Amino acid sequence: MKKVFHKISSVCLALIVLLSTVSFTIDSHYCGDTLVDSSLFGHVETCGMDKQLSRNDCQSEVQDDSCCSDKQLVVEGQDDLKMSFNTLNFEQQVFVVSFVHSYINLFETLDSHIVPFRDYTPPYLVRNVQKLHETYLI
Fold first, then answer.
1. What average pLDDT is seen over the chain?
2. How many other C-beta atoms lie within 10 A of the C-beta of residue 51?
3. 28, 34, 110, 117: which has the highest count of C-beta atoms within 10 A?
4. Do 123 and 117 touch, CB atoms closer than 8 A?
5. Residue pair 76/21 in contact by the 8 Å Cβ criterion
6. 30 φ, ψ to 5°?
7. Where are the domains positioned within the chain?
8. Which one is predicted more confidently, 125 or 117?
9. Does the structure show a pLDDT above 60 at 63?
10. Hey, what's the signal peptide range on this chain (predicted)?
């Protein structure tokens, strides 16, 4: 259960970092107050009312009082995720160094053949307690 929760939380945090750093643009075309087309990638399709009118073959002009409008919504992502070690003050640097040192030493392997009573001699046996109380393990 703990491993599943750990994996789910790590995927969620990775998605949060990804979504906070991605920037995108939404283009919208309005004809009057009505939304005609909206696009996340590429160009929007127009309603056809903003085309150029040609008077002659040599001249063309755009209609001045067009009811159409294009709007663009830009969502900027976060750019400065990497924090430099030089911007930390002295107390923060000491904390980071001590944390890393203690975390690395946490996973050092211990000797597998530890005998805690190696330096001690066994006690002197004055009398046999099992024979004294006549209790024997069968």
1. 80
2. 13
3. 28
4. no
5. no
6. -110, 135
7. 2-51+60-75
8. 117
9. no
10. 1-25
